[in-house]
Design goal:
The complex is a heterodimer of chains A (529) and B (406). Helices cover 35% and strands 18% of the residues of chain A. By secondary structure, chain A is of the alpha/beta class. Chain A starts with a strand and ends with a helix. Chain B has 406 residues and is of the alpha+beta class. In chain B, a hairpin with a 4-residue loop joins strand 16 and strand 17. Classes of the chains: A alpha/beta (529), B alpha+beta (406).
């Protein structure tokens, strides 16, 4: 017998840390175990190349729940989120478009392509904002169970129904379209400019093995508008010190409340006895006991990797195996010895202080998906770029810069098989740099260091099964009461005293912290520890 | 309106043409069409603010310290050369006239800053003291350099090692050959400095700071960003959070230092100073008001606005219009004087004048709020100030431990 904790949290991802902090705040004795040498999981900052800090995986933050920031007093522990100022799209013909917080400036930028779209843009934003208001409580409450007759579950369903009715006919119809249409089809009902539709449609495919023209991709557009109603004026931000600074702030808060966090402490397996989790065994053989075990790891990894199939009901195992992970993206981080000007709009103005999309047309994006469908990485991928060092000079030495490039598509299932990714890593990195060099001619000469992460690397290093950045696709059939499996969407699992608190649980991925908080709430309400 | 000596640079930098009057000078509200980038510069890199319009008085002479101790609530005669103090100034009835800083920049040389003009007041109280009082408001200009990178900006360009510069200290040095006074003070509650020089050197100072600041992400900022930062820092503003007895027509609206939450600036047990007897008498009976921090419930706002089918809609900038403050039974117990959404702590925060005993931390109060023009109330809680207090504000990298002070 080892030490006895109230709760052991497996994985110090941001959700695991949030969950631990809430449990510790409620007076529980909590231990967080992290396999890597730093906390944060995929929300980490590391100095891979001396003097340059990379937000290695996750690179922007939008929906970190404000109540978590307040409850855990995160600004006191170092959290500072800087707003991204714009969304910039360069086109191969030398034109470009910047959308920013300044409505008049945005209107002029869009009007250069279409005066009609320029006027429609704020109206679209308003409609989406209203729908986001409908959707927002969904990410702040646990998923209702539609099969249950419990009064609390019924009340929650009723409340959701009432909110839907309150939307009115026009918005209800829009909501219906949003959940069924493709991002491109949906946006094309509003806009005529392909140069505008393309970058907007991208938010529908991030982290998903679908194309901008695949049905169901419109829904994720809504996430873009949800941050707007959290009391800040801007949705997307960048954490000072990189995304890892968010995890560090949560970790400090958790420790302040009494939680213990151990890094370099990989869990070999979760101990199960008589259908109940009793603790964990570390990779070094150490046994640790707890009243409950909470896994921040991805569900398939948690159950098939850490628990074992033989402890689980067949139906549940079947659902887990069907759970769609199929990662579709990679990441390239660059250390640069000078700023690489974009030929179409040089300099480090406001257009560089937001996110930059290489998404010049909807056909370009669909072709990128075509490559992926048949098991290859996109020769001309969709890129989403930020320059954290422009907003936060601590990220790089003076006058030098870090560039963070999110890349899609990089399908986990390449035709040679996922294990062949390491041989293709540099070719994949080259495709990204070649694509970008068409817009930034001086880029190649300014690269001091390049880190390329393929879906295979994300799986091996960060435990993101199949490289899926959201612990499972955020497609409609894997959300709400289906996440991660029907009947097990409320953080409880078929193993008693084993709980889920990661992005594979409702409401899903992104640096939101919501699964961690909602899991902690349910654990405490049910008196599980 | 008068312009400051930095105007050729500040006006060229302004793309919003958004200016307002500050003590007779034109001062930028914000340089761009929105304030966000300027505010975040203050909290993540550095911001440069023209503070020339502050009233400035140089007091010299063998009696300078004892004279200033007579009109400020802090015992100025006790401060050493190179130190700065924040203090209140009262009338004989113990009512606040102003608040400001007093810096001892030489053995017999002090400089005061204030929000209102006090030349006549200084003269009137200097009878019998061997002092010379000079109004330097229009001859000395100033820039506030505030934010986590402020020290790094100065490091390469000042003759003095900024790593050794401690909180609330001042010293004379040079920047790009310009003789300046640098003090580690500010109105943002963050790491920061205020730099003063003769008007004639203004542009050279501005250019040197802008050049040194660029690699650190420093940008010029206006008063809108400052206003949010000072509320986060819990700093009161004369004319907003309390009214100077000089201009106030009604006694009931005047504030003593204790009323304004500035009781800590009063060194009561010493020789005579203006307002001493009244403050002593008030301390015996207990003051009526306190100035407190409020955390206005975001959940309460969401609930209130949801009745109107809209998300909470707050002004994008700090709000200075006073609104009533109630206790649970509807009795008015004070007024909210400054309100802002805090982008740093992600809370809707306010400064408020509250009648004792409702000033205690943890007290639940209700703030008037008017969504859709209807008078409603939303829950708020009295909390400790400042709302944001980073350790870098006070830390000094090269301070010798035995010299470190609170």
């Amino acid at each position: 017998m080892g030490e006895r904790y109230d709760a052991i949290v497996v994985g110090a991802g941001h959700n695991g840390l949030v969950c631990a902090a809430y449990l510790a705040k409620a007076g529980r004795k909590v231990l967080v175990l992290e396999k890597r040498h730093v906390v944060g999981g995929a929300a980490c900052s590391e100095e891979i190349y001396p003097g340059f800090t990379y937000s290695v995986c996750s690179y922007v933050v939008s929906l970190l729940r404000p109540q978590i920031i307040r409850d855990l007093d995160l600004p006191r522990f170092g959290l500072s989120v800087l707003p991204l100022e714009s969304t910039f799209t360069p086109y191969p013909d030398g034109r470009s478009m910047m959308r920013s917080a300044d409505p008049a400036a945005t209107r002029r930028e869009i009007a250069a392509f279409s005066a009609r779209d320029a006027d429609t843009y704020p109206i679209f934003g308003k409609a989406m904002g209203q729908l986001a208001r409908f959707a927002k409580p969904i990410i702040d409450e646990k998923a209702p169970d539609p099969m249950s007759w419990k009064p609390a579950e019924l009340m929650q369903l009723l409340k959701m129904g009432k909110r839907f009715r309150d939307l009115g006919d026009d918005l209800s119809l829009l909501q219906y379209k949003l959940t069924t249409m493709s991002a491109v089809d949906f946006l094309s009902e509003w806009f005529e400019t392909d140069e505008l539709i393309a970058p907007m449609a991208c938010s529908g495919i991030i982290g998903t093995m679908l194309g901008v023209k695949s049905p169901g991709t419109a829904y994720v557009l809504l996430h873009h508008y949800m941050g707007e109603i959290d009391g800040s004026s801007r949705a997307w931000g960048f954490a000072r010190g990189g995304t890892g600074a968010i995890s560090m702030a949560i970790a400090r808060s958790a420790e302040h409340f009494g939680a213990e966090i151990r890094t370099n402490a990989g869990v070999d397996h979760i101990k199960v006895s008589g259908g109940e989790a009793t603790g964990v065994v570390l990779e070094d053989g150490t046994e640790l006991d707890a009243k409950i075990v909470v896994s921040c790891a991805e569900p398939r990894l948690t159950f098939l990797g850490l628990v074992g199939e033989k402890e689980l009901p067949d139906e549940f195992v079947t659902q887990l195996k069907r759970y769609k992970l199929r990662g579709s993206s990679g990441k390239v981080n660059l250390a640069l010895d000078r700023f690489p000007d974009f030929a179409c709009r040089p300099g480090t103005g406001p257009h560089m202080r937001g996110d930059i999309s290489i998404a010049p047309s909807t056909d370009y994006l669909e072709r990128a998906y075509d490559d992926a469908k048949y098991g290859e990485f996109s020769k001309k991928p969709f890129l989403n770029i930020v320059f954290p060092s422009l907003l936060d000079p601590d990220m790089s030495p003076e006058g030098k810069h870090v560039m963070s490039i999110f890349v899609q598509y990089a399908p986990y299932h390449i035709k040679e098989g996922p294990s062949h990714w390491p041989e293709k890593r540099e070719a994949f990195g080259d495709a990204v740099i070649d694509t970008l060099a068409e817009y930034c001619p001086t880029l190649k000469d300014s690269i001091l260091h390049r880190q390329v992460l393929t879906p295979w690397d994300l799986e091996v290093e960060f435990g993101l099964t199949e490289g899926n950045i959201f612990h499972g696709e955020l497609s409609l059939e894997q959300l709400l009461f289906q996440r991660p499996a029907a009947g097990w969407a409320q953080y409880k699992t078929p193993i008693r005293s084993l709980w889920l608190c990661g992005s594979g649980a409702h409401p899903g991925g992104g640096v939101m912290g919501a699964p961690g908080q909602l899991a902690a709430k349910d654990i405490l309400m049910g008196g599980a520890c | 309106m008068q312009t400051t000596p930095f105007h050729p640079r500040t006006s060229a930098h302004s793309t919003s043409y958004s200016w307002k009057e500050w003590a007779g000078y034109a001062a930028p509200c914000s340089y761009a069409s929105h304030t966000e980038a300027e505010f975040f510069a203050l909290r993540s890199t550095a911001g440069l603010l023209d503070v020339t319009p502050l009233y400035k008085y140089d007091v010299r002479g063998p009696d300078a310290g004892t004279f200033l101790a007579r009109i400020w609530t802090r015992d100025i005669s006790k401060i050493g050369v190179g130190r700065v103090v924040y203090s209140a100034m009262c009338d004989e009835a113990g009512h606040m006239l102003d608040d400001g800083t007093v810096a001892r920049i030489g053995e017999q040389h002090y400089r005061c800053t204030s929000s209102e003009p006090w030349y006549a007041w200084f003269l009137q109280h200097s009878r019998g003291f061997d002092v010379q009082i000079e109004d330097t408001t229009d001859s000395i200009c100033g820039l506030a350099l505030q934010g986590p990178r402020a020290r790094d900006v100065l490091k390469g360009i000042t003759a003095f090692d900024m790593d050794r510069m401690r909180f609330f200290r001042i010293r004379a040095t040079t920047i790009a050959g310009v003789p300046v006074w640098v003090s580690r003070t500010g109105y943002t509650g963050d790491l920061g400095f205020e730099i003063f020089c003769e008007n004639t050197h203004a542009l050279a100072l501005w250019d040197a700071l802008l050049e040194a600041g660029a690699p650190h992400g420093m940008i010029p900022i206006g008063l809108n960003a400052l206003d949010v930062a000072r509320i986060e820092a819990g700093f009161v503003l004369q004319g907003v959070d309390y009214i100077s007895a000089k201009t106030c027509l009604v006694d009931a609206l005047k504030s003593t230092p204790d009323d304004a939450g500035l009781g800590w600036t009063v060194d009561l047990e010493r020789g005579y100073f203006v307002g001493q007897a009244a403050i002593r008498a008030e301390r015996k009976r207990g003051s009526v008001w306190d100035l407190v921090g409020l955390d206005i419930s975001w959940e309460g706002l969401e609930e209130l606005y949801s009745e109107y089918q809209i998300p909470p809609h707050l002004a994008p900038e700090a709000c200075r219009s006073a609104v009533p403050l109630y206790k649970w039974d509807g009795e008015q117990v004070g007024q909210v004087t400054s309100t802002t959404w805090s982008p740093t702590v992600k809370r809707y925060i306010a400064l408020a004048q509250v009648r004792r005993p409702h000033h205690l931390v943890g007290t639940e109060l209700y703030v008037e709020h008017t969504p859709m023009f209807e008078r409603r109330r939303v829950q708020a809680m009295v909390v400790d100030k400042p709302f944001f207090d980073p350790s870098r504000k006070r830390e000094t990298p090269a301070a010798q431990p035995q010299l470190r002070e609170e």
